[in-house]
């Protein structure tokens, strides 16, 4: 059945892009309860051990894992709620949570203490406190490299930088004249010297650039992701 024009416009206007799916209220409540339990254990390991802690650790690990992999429809939403941590910190936190769960199961107090320290070092306590309170903290003195596309043209990638929040930049782009299908966020890196990083990345991506005066590139997302990831890691620019 062909939708009336007005209905098609409503569907387009209500679309969320890659990673930006809203979280159902019951799922968000479950995540907040799990984050609260893990945060309590971080703050007071002697008295924060609850029967459901193993499951709670798995839930919170899942939050960090989706932000590190950036491959779920709600990863960007969760990333914002955690305070926009860098991908490396997300990976470190997810690994610490997995090892912490194992250490608790095995009754290894030394390993428990070590993984709690690793989680705090990755910023876990601040992330979870902001997540639970609904007031996430943000990285200081850093910028963002972003990769955007629409769901209809996944190969046409907009790759740029911002020193504001990524969601603010996306809203700005989607409000621009001529944008009909909203852009979604495919990937983000939290970096130092974001403008210089963007300049170097654009030089490396020059063969794929659609127009010299626009930051659009025609290539498979996986190839763009690998190029940016390797550059950011090799130059140690990630915050």
UniProtKB/TrEMBL annotation:
<dbReference type="InterPro" id="IPR018306">
    <property type="entry name" value="Phage_T5_Orf172_DNA-bd"/>
</dbReference>
<dbReference type="Pfam" id="PF10544">
    <property type="entry name" value="T5orf172"/>
</dbReference>
<feature type="domain" description="Bacteriophage T5 Orf172 DNA-binding">
    <location>
        <begin position="151"/>
        <end position="231"/>
    </location>
</feature>
<protein>
    <submittedName>
        <fullName>T5orf172 domain-containing protein</fullName>
    </submittedName>
</protein>
């Amino acid at each position: 059945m062909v939708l009336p024009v007005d209905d098609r416009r409503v569907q387009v206007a209500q679309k969320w892009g890659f990673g930006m799916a809203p979280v159902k209220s019951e799922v968000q409540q479950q995540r907040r309860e799990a984050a609260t339990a893990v945060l309590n254990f971080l703050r007071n390991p002697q008295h924060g051990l609850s029967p459901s802690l193993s499951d709670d650790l798995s839930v919170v690990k899942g939050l960090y894992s989706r932000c590190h992999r950036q491959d779920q429809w709600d990863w960007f939403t969760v990333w914002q709620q955690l305070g926009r941590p860098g991908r490396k910190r997300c990976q470190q936190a997810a690994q610490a949570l997995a090892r912490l769960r194992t250490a608790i199961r095995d009754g290894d107090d030394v390993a428990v203490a070590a993984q709690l320290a690793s989680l705090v070092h990755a910023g876990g306590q601040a992330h979870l406190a902001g997540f639970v309170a609904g007031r996430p903290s943000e990285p200081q003195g850093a910028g963002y490299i972003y990769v955007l596309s629409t769901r209809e043209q996944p190969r046409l990638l907009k790759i740029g930088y911002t020193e504001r929040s990524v969601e603010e930049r996306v809203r700005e782009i989607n409000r621009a004249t001529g944008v009909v299908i909203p852009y979604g966020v495919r990937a983000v890196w939290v970096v130092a010297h974001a403008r210089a990083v963007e300049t170097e990345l654009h030089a490396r991506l020059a063969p794929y650039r659609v127009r010299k005066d626009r930051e659009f590139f025609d290539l498979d997302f996986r190839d763009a992701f690998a190029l940016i990831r390797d550059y950011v890691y090799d130059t140690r620019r990630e915050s």
